[in-house]
TrEMBL record, chain A:
This is Phosphate transport system permease protein. The keyword Lipid biosynthesis does not apply. It comes from Methylobacterium iners. Its main location: membrane. Belongs to the binding-protein-dependent transport system permease family. CysTW subfamily. The lineage of its organism: Bacteria, Pseudomonadati, Pseudomonadota, Alphaproteobacteria, Hyphomicrobiales. It comes from the Bacteria. Pfam families: BPD_transp_1 (PF00528). The gene is pstC.
TrEMBL record, chain B:
This is Phosphate transport system permease protein PstA. Residues 87-291 form the ABC transmembrane type-1 domain. Residues 1-23 are annotated as: Disordered. PANTHER family: PHOSPHATE TRANSPORT SYSTEM PERMEASE PROTEIN PSTA. The keyword Iron does not apply. Its main location: membrane. It is found in: Cell inner membrane; Cell membrane.
Length: 326, 301
């Protein structure tokens, strides 16, 4: 009812009786036009990003064809470029970030909604959210100067010594040069960066679940674990997956923090302790000195990143939205 | 997954026979594990934030001196110097970004909340705006590079400002729309009943009622773009001296300065990078906290 009257109030000319004159005049029309144009501009931003990157990357796609995706060459002298190493690095670091970050995020969300004493809720939630506003370059510095030396000394060296010579684990977890930087370090830093996002969305979703469901579960003698496992998680599962996808979108496109800690090597290694590179880190590293085909190849990498991230983000938004409506 | 039945059969079976201890060991262990692990996860988050702040304070305070704010960045391998040019450059770039993004963002948010509402176009814009909100910032850098640096033939502060504006806009659109939607409909109706045209109703009633929320959105956008590095790499670049007033050529700015200096082999540069990192992080955290209090006072009213 309210919506109906508002519509009549705001679009008087369209729905009002013909006798009624619209107040306002030219200024009013201009204001409306400005609002409309601004909204369309937001669409144009997105279209412009896609168009410019596709335009810039087109020569590389034409030159290398489908092989661009599967080739692991990156030879500036011979003008041979392939995206495979960067794609694998991006996927591996993002996957590690999810494996590490998602349980932590869910833990924080459960703590904040179920376990935290009332007085501590606000400060703890705020601390976690402040983690989200720390710039990514600071995470990069922290990762490179504080985390990487500790990681090399207390994880890489002991683990490498233990697994050396073992099948599978021996290649997967062996650091040839235990410097602390590598794909796993990037994954851990990314995990820390996505935790505040996933945790705060999950917390909001858990808060939206009617209290009576939780109370009735506790009432029949459920433990906190059972309430979380059998009541809260099934209720919020779709939106939690959406939140995780949002985190994934962030992890795929994160640039500066990863550039600091991934080692920037164009080499395909089976070990997650070894340096690698991601699409974003490679663009950040090489773009300013790039010329000719290298520039096109970097744009083509950006195009691949665009497509992958946007598919992930679209799925994420659809999942998060569907629950809000229901 | 039946939402109406929150107690699956397993719980009922397990909960029924209670003999001896009140809770069966398996259940108690599972519960303890959950409590301990989620507490640990939260503690971990707090420890990481504490560790980052501690690192910045320990390393950054060493580099603080009056020269930091008065002298430009020094050449490689030299002594002394400050980051005054980078601070000024960052202020200018961020101002350009916010000055461009605020009118676009507020007007687009107004369109979504007041004019478009539930139309198909508004739904589409809302959805794509949410996606733009979390789009990788490096791609926005590539876009502005093609759009402005290529056509103008040189890196410039204008390109950097536009890149930051594109990052800030979706944040402002989102908060403006959310805040305008909280304004009760009868307020608008009262304005319209006085014969005010829609633009006047929006400008002097809805905007005014939602002003604190809209300001919060702008502060949040400011906090978001103040530390952005990736899009500036290809647009504003960096520069080790003062910049020309027409903002053409590389414009020094804090994030890119930090990136280049932190990875350099010169101790003096690294020191300046730490000082800059402390400065920028404190600014951004302060902005985020201020935004929170603005929104809180709005809710209380």
């Amino acid at each position: 009812m309210a919506a109906l009257t508002e519509q009549i109030a705001l679009t008087g000319a369209a729905s009002g009786s013909p006798a009624r004159k619209t107040p306002g005049g030219i200024g009013d029309q201009l204001f409306r036009l400005a609002a409309y144009a601004s909204a369309i501009l937001v669409l144009l931003f997105l279209a412009g990003i896609l168009a410019s990157i596709a335009y810039g990357g087109w020569p590389a796609f034409r030159e290398f064809g489908f092989g661009f995706l599967t080739s692991s060459a990156w030879n500036i002298g011979q003008e041979q470029y392939g995206a495979f190493v960067a794609i694998m690095g991006t996927l591996a670091s993002a996957a590690l970030a999810l494996v590490i970050g998602v349980p932590i995020s869910l833990g924080i969300a459960v703590y904040l909604t179920q376990l935290c004493p009332g007085w501590a809720r606000k400060p703890v939630a705020m601390t976690i959210e402040l983690l989200a506003s720390v710039p990514s370059i600071i995470y990069g510095m922290w990762g490179l100067f504080i985390f990487a030396p500790l990681f090399a000394r207390f994880v890489q060296v002991p683990v490498s010594n233990v697994v050396e010579g073992l099948p599978i684990v021996g290649t997967l977890l062996y650091a040839r040069v235990p410097s602390g930087v590598g794909v796993l370090t990037a994954g851990i830093i990314l995990a820390i960066m996505i935790v505040p996002f996933v945790a705060s969305i999950t917390r909001d979703m858990l808060d939206q679940i009617p209290t009576v469901l939780r109370e009735s579960a506790y009432g029949i003698g459920c433990t906190t674990w059972e309430v979380v496992r059998h009541v809260l998680v099934p209720q919020a599962s779709v939106s939690i997956i959406g939140a995780i996808m949002l985190g994934l979108g962030r992890a795929l496109g994160e640039t500066m923090a990863v550039t600091f800690v991934i080692g920037n090597a164009n080499r395909l290694s089976a070990s997650i302790f070894d340096p690698g590179s991601t699409i974003a880190s490679r663009i950040a590293n090489e773009f300013n000195e790039a010329d000719g085909m290298q520039l096109h190849a970097l744009m083509a990498l950006g195009c691949i990143l665009f497509i992958v991230t946007f598919i992930v983000l679209i799925i994420a938004r659809l999942l998060v939205r569907r629950v809000k409506v229901a | 997954m039946d939402a109406r039945n929150p107690m699956p059969a397993t719980i009922e079976r397990e909960a029924a026979p209670v003999t001896g201890s009140r809770v069966r060991p398996g259940r108690r262990v599972a519960d303890r594990v959950l409590v301990v692990s989620s507490t640990l996860a939260t503690a971990l988050g707090i420890v990481v934030l504490g560790s980052i702040l501690l690192m910045l304070i320990v390393e950054g305070v060493k580099g603080f001196s009056p020269a930091l704010f008065t002298e430009p960045t020094p050449g490689p391998g030299s002594e002394g110097g400050g980051i005054a040019n980078a601070i000024l450059g960052s202020l200018i770039l961020t101002s350009i970004g916010i000055v461009i993004a605020t009118p676009i963002g507020v007007m687009a948010g107004t369109y979504l909340a007041e004019y478009g509402r539930n139309s198909k176009l508004a739904d589409l814009i809302r959805f794509l705006n949410d996606i733009l909100l979390s789009a990788p910032s490096i791609l926005i850098g590539l876009f502005v590079y093609t759009l402005m640096v290529r056509t103008m033939g040189s890196y410039s502060g204008w390109a950097g400002g536009v890149a930051l504006a594109i990052i800030a806009t979706p944040v402002i659109v989102r908060t403006t729309e959310d805040m305008l939607r909280l304004v009760p409909g009868p307020l608008r109706e009262a304005g319209a009943a006085l014969g005010a045209p829609p633009s006047v109703v929006i400008k002097s009633i809805t905007w005014r009622a939602a002003s604190a929320g809209i300001v919060t959105g702008i502060i949040l956008a400011l906090a978001r773009i103040a530390g952005e590095t990736a899009p500036l790499l290809f647009t504003a670049l960096n520069n080790n001296s003062w910049f020309s007033p027409n903002l053409m050529g590389g414009i020094p700015n804090l994030p890119v300065m930090i990136y280049q200096f932190a990875l350099s082999p010169y101790p003096n540069w690294q020191q300046l990078a730490w000082a800059g990192a402390l400065l920028i992080t404190i600014t951004i955290l302060a902005l985020s906290i201020v935004a929170r209090f603005v929104i809180k006072s709005e809710r209380a009213r």
